[in-house]
Input
Amino acid sequence: MRAGLLGIEGLSREDIDVILSRSHDFQPPPRQPFKRFEILKGKTVVNLFFEASTRTRTSFEIAAKRLGAEIISITASGSSVSKGESLVDTLNTLGAMRPDAIVMRHAASGAPHFLSRYLPIPIVNAGDGTHEHPTQALLDARTILDRRQSLEDLRIAIIGDIAHSRVARSNVYLLSKYGARMVLCGPASLLPCELKSIAPGVELTTNMREAIEGADVIMMLRVQLERQHESPIPANEYFQFYGLRPEHISLANQNVIVMHPGPINRGREISSEVADSQRSAILNQVENGIAVRMAVLESVLAPEPAQQREELKAQ
Ligand code: NCD
Output
């Protein structure tokens, strides 16, 4: 992890276990405030976002601050990128300021990998095109583990615009390392067969009821209109076939966990009744994003994780 976090694909199950367990240390007890630490005191993180973000950007900011680091957020629209500066020139400029790490979101798949070859500092991928969103998959796993003993043997339905979803891809990589059974579901045009080859436990279906039957977890995905080149399925029609509604919940296992990485589009991929129901873990995912990103930033930037574990336990 010292080199940064570019994706889930290259992590071992042990690497993932370490982050998930460390993020558990950082989760505050219910209704209690987050603690502040000095683990990353003196470190500077640049949060470089070339694509829109509410949850991910803010939670990286909060995570860095809670560990005592300084963090500077830069968005494409507020930077010289909007004046025509190239990616390489932007990166060289930021590199010359010697941050300790860069968190990066970019519309091009592979952009953080390119950056990591260019700059001698750790890069954390906050979402690259349709490729990976590693911290989202980690926080999703943390959220499931808050409610279930293990990720093994779970049946997980991932439903929606699979083709354009870096969240789906990172989750498939992560969950397959634990032997979870996954059903990917969406309209045929948004359901790429190649994801089946990532792991043996992956099935594909265009039938939403079939996907949900017996599911322990339902992960809904946003229809990513910004990445679609053909005219989209109208919202009401999409909702009729792939929108999660109360009648679907009874098909799933008892106590099914409903998740969505956000931003949610009510009435397109999920109904308000389900999004706001007891089954929904959507806001827990947001909350867990902070603890997971604290664990990731620590593993990337802190020199002596074992010692810090002691520091955390002593507080
Ligand atoms: C996701 C993303 O950006 O990939 N959102 C997020 O980070 N919470 C999913 C999405 O935008 O639909």
About this structure: The first helix runs from residue 13 to 26. Residues 13 and 152 are 12 Å apart (CA to CA).
